[in-house]
UniProtKB/TrEMBL annotation:
Span of domain CAAX prenyl protease 2/Lysostaphin resistance protein A-like: 132-231
Spans through the membrane: 46-67, 88-109, 134-152, 164-181, 193-211, 218-240
GO biological process, alphabetically ordered: CAAX-box protein maturation; proteolysis
UniProt entry tagged with the keyword Transmembrane: yes
GO function terms (MF aspect): endopeptidase activity; metallopeptidase activity
Pfam families given in the database record: Rce1-like
Keywords of the record: Hydrolase, Membrane, Metalloprotease, Protease, Signal, Transmembrane, Transmembrane helix
Organism in which the protein naturally occurs: Marilutibacter spongiae
Protein's recorded name: CPBP family intramembrane metalloprotease
PANTHER family: CAAX AMINO TERMINAL PROTEASE FAMILY PROTEIN, SLR1288 PROTEIN
Signal peptide, first to last residue: 1-21
Keyword RNA-binding assigned: no
Length: 241
């Protein structure tokens, strides 16, 4: 269901973005360029791609959550109680920093083995940051962690957790998290470099699932994810890609 919705919404919003771009050009009295329209549909610029990602993935997360993983009033009450504990915030910060440290360690090891992969979304993110840095920081540090944790941890991991198979849920949801961030064939990375990126994203997914289960609150996973992304974006802006 999630894959089908993601593909459908991505296609829909990509077409909508191309139509809006064409309508904007016509309203300015510019001649419509069919080749340019096809190009904008096939390869939208960074900021447009971020909006398509936000609407498509966020929409998928909300729909699947509503149909397959909606929290009960009792679950929401327990989650609020958990957030009042200092230990929850401690785990949140610890896991957020641990995922960043693990990513750095995997990158360091990869460099020493002759592998320096470039994430397929890095150029898009850097281009979008140049166009709208404030929006991109909000997107990367707040919006993306919220909808990704809702989809991958609450719905995918949570389904198997509630069925009594949390470790299987952790493995499968982390694998899905890694694949959606780095699909093979979409970049010039070699297979070893792609596997290195999968290890990075897979560890992140497993860590966020672990803190969700450890604390009992999805907000802990969202917070850890947000902290990781906020620091990573700051390093990206400072030139430490």
């Amino acid at each position: 269901m999630a894959i089908g919705l993601l593909v459908a919404l991505s296609t829909l919003f990509s077409i909508a973005a191309a139509v809006i771009a064409a309508a904007t050009a016509l309203s300015r009295g510019e001649a419509l360029d069919p080749d340019g329209l096809v190009q904008s549909l096939a390869q939208p610029d960074g900021l447009v791609m971020i909006w398509v990602t936000l609407l498509a993935t966020g929409g998928t997360a909300l729909v699947v959550y509503a149909l397959r993983g909606r929290a009960t009033p009792d679950e929401r009450r327990r989650s609020r109680q958990v957030l009042s504990r200092p230990s929850t915030w401690g785990w949140m910060v610890l896991v957020g920093l641990a995922t960043l440290a693990a990513s750095t360690a995997i990158a360091w090891l990869g460099r020493h083995l002759g592998s320096e992969p470039v994430p397929s979304n890095q150029a898009i993110i850097q281009g979008a940051f140049e166009q709208s840095p404030l929006f991109m920081y909000v997107f990367a540090a707040l919006l993306a962690p919220a909808y990704e944790e809702l989809l991958f941890r609450r719905v995918l991991f949570g389904r198997l957790w509630r069925a009594g198979r949390p470790w299987l849920g952790m493995v499968l949801s982390s694998a899905a998290f890694a694949l959606i961030h780095e699909l093979p064939g979409l970049s010039a990375n070699s297979w070893p470099a792609t596997v290195q990126l999968w290890m990075t994203y897979g560890f992140m997914g497993a860590a966020f699932a672990w803190v969700y289960r450890r604390t009992g609150s999805l907000w802990a996973a969202i917070g850890a994810h947000a902290l990781n992304n906020a620091i990573a974006c700051l390093l990206l802006v400072l030139g430490y890609a």
